[in-house]
Amino acid sequence: MGPERARVLVVDDDPLSIAAIRSLLEPDGYRVDEARGGRQALAQVARARPDCVVLDYAMPGMSGLEVVRALRDSGDEIPVVMLSAKDDSFDKAAGYGSGVDVYIGKDEDASVLRAAIARLLHHHGDKGSRIATGGLVLDSSTWTCQVDGREIRLPPRAFGLLEALASQPGSVLRKEQLVYRVWGVNSDVYNRAVDNAVVELRKLLGDSSQDPRFIHTVRGVGYKFEPRT
Predict the structure, then answer these.
(1) How far is 138 from 132, CA to CA, in rounded Å?
(2) Which of 47, 70, 119, 162 is most buried, by the most CB atoms less than 10 A from its CB?
(3) How far apart are CA 80 and CA 103, in angstroms?
(4) Are residues 8 and 119 in the same domain?
(5) Domain range spanning residue 173?
(6) pLDDT class for 42, splitting at 50, 70, 90?
């Protein structure tokens, strides 16, 4: 099962947070369902079981922690990513102790959440996302990148940037879109940071801004991935 068929249930009492995660995941091919609270989430899991749950820690009525405990007590090992605005070791310990697979702070880069979901799906039987074109092979399930058969070690942000571009070949992505996809909706990163990140990514890939093989600059707008044939 690849990402284009994987269903992710996003659980949060804040509709803006749900919308942000939906906008992050749907371009990767995931089907995104939503629940506005813990009890609704459990009902949806029982009715149409998703492949992964992205769950807010602090919700009124039934907390994210209580949702995870209910799932695990019922014997359900569905992968769960817990999101929290607090960076508290006690909360993390409680989350992992209850059966959370990955605990991520809401201020983390968006690429961290995307990578966590891809990796969890891979561990639970999903083959992950693989892009192979123009001599480039990018595999999010193993977090690997190859150019002409040579492995390139990419740090998480560079990997997320390349994946965002390569997942929509030929499409121009505005700098604002890349900030949203790679750094996250709550990021205070500016367009210049995108330019700097592209420069670094090109160096890692052995690409050139003057004669690009993979990443093309669209002046005044953003960038596009279009491998040279």
Answers:
(1) 6
(2) 162
(3) 9
(4) yes
(5) 130-225
(6) very high
